[in-house]
# Entry
Amino acid sequence: MNEAPLSWEEVARTHGRKIYNYAYRLCGDPHDAADLVQEVLLRVRKGLADFQPGSFDGWLWRITHNAFIDEMRRRQRRPTAPLPESVDRWDIQSAPGADEQLAAMRLGEEIQAALMQLPYEFREAVVMCDVVGLSYEEIAEAVAVPVGTVRSRIHRGRRLLRGALSQEQVG
Amino acid sequence: MNLPALLVAAVMAGTPVVPDLGGYLERSSEAEFSGEQLVSCETPDGSRSSVFNLAQLEGTVVAWEPDDEVPVMSVAPGVSVTAVGDEVEASMVEGTPVVQSDHYTVGSTTGSSYLGRPVEEVSILRDGTERVRLVVDHATDAVVRTSTYDGDGSLYCDRRLLSFDTDVSDVPEVVLSSDVDTAQPIDDAPAELPESIEGFSLVDTYSLADGTLSYYSDGFFSAGVVMTDRPIDPDSDDGMVEVEDDTGAYRRSYQAGMVSVTWLSGSGNMAVIGDLPPDLLEALLDDLPQPTQENFFDRLWTRLFG
Amino acid sequence: MTHLDELLSVYLDGETTPAESARVQSHLSDCLKCRRRLMAFNEARTAVRSLPTLELPVALVPAAPEIARRRRRATWLGAAAAAAAAFIAVATFTAPTPEPIDISDLSRQVRARAALDAGAGGLQVVLPSAVSE
# Structure
């Protein structure tokens, strides 16, 4: 999509879920991810007026990338609250067909845990590529690095990820 | 005459012969005899035993059974042949012979008799612990019985002749066609393999299809360590046991006098084949590339593709 | 032969130039090591792609919620399809399966080697005879 959408609400509807998934896979916490989506939508609303015709995805993900970086910096200056119990998990355990869903959930948790072990730049590149589905060029534009750096970050991220997942002890 | 024989001969020609393990075995390999051999082993996976005819002549050991279906096996320095009828499979290798070992010393020797013949019982210590007991025939120098022990002192394998005859006229002949390639050691062992493990040294490495075979020896026990990109077929093997330890899963097969272990590591498909007692096998496995924890990807794949 | 590394990961994403793709394909057809490596990258890639898509919390959806609700259930199925495509791409390079090595051939070679040593007492011939157990 290379034209600016009409409204920030539309951005929210068309891209909100992707931004949320991006944020969640980067930070591993649903509340922080929701905060980030709000922050991004706020910035989109402010910025839409100045949007220059070009790659909308590049523009949007640059905003998202910057919002996340700013948010991380802000959080580093204040103590973090303990992580809340995952409510979803218990819901799923008691639901019908729980076994299968629980197995899926556990796999997801292991992958998420492995992602969290990656250095931030690698994790971001991998998530933009494999969760959001951006092209290398779009990632390069969003993160403001050369495509060669994107190649290298994704590659190194995957290598570390493979190692982390292979070492996973099964309880 | 091969190199160790030369070296031992040189030692024997000189003045007093200090008894050592290599000397006993080398002199035995020059003896000529035949008889019925029993091999029985107590392994972690149960008892394994085998009885067959054995003969030694001209430096070659031949094992066979009257049954045509059972292969005739023949082993000489650097050569191993298995033949069933006209089907002959052979391996030939060159290498650096292990002549002496600092790890083995002769503990005690006792005069005795075995199969009605005067013999010497020789206790062999590995780093101070008895690991091997040889029964050596006085008249021929043949080792007529070899017992090996696990680290805790329990008997691992007992290999003994049930009959002994110096007549070697009735031994099946194995004809080796000349088109067998001799495997030459290569210079580079895989970086993943340690130079030495628990008294074992990496002696020679050979190229295999898509991999390598590295030979470890401690001067008595020995093992080949295989690392390959190809799958390893574990034979049609009844005794195969799946073993899991802290690090991962192995497939292990003890046979009488021989053990093989296969697993998948990050460096490829692995196998250890040797005659090690259980404790030394474990020590070796501990220092080789560990099994991969494939569980995660297995589960992911099952999840995605059923 | 110089092995490939980063290019394999790039190749999985279809981000290689035509020249690079040709190089990867020709190298993969000869090199088992790199085919294994490609599989390893593909596993990591598939793992992340298989993560279920989470729904945006309703509070964050400003209006017209029917769009967000249309695909309400996080599903592994889409991920499986994506992974399958990558898997098939990789599988084409893994065929033909290399011929397995028979362990009896390996044993024979070890026996031949051990017989060179004066001390290889233990590895002498043992017929796997009729008597067992």
Confidence is low (pLDDT under 50) at residues 78-96 of chain A. The interface with chain C takes residues 8-9, 12-14, 16-17, 20-21, 24-25, 30, 34, 37-38, 41, 104, 107-108, 111-112, 114-115, 126-127, 129-131, 135-136, 151-152, 154-155, 158-159, 161-162, 165 of chain A (CB under 8 Å). The CA atoms of residues 22 and 131 of chain A lie 7 Å apart.
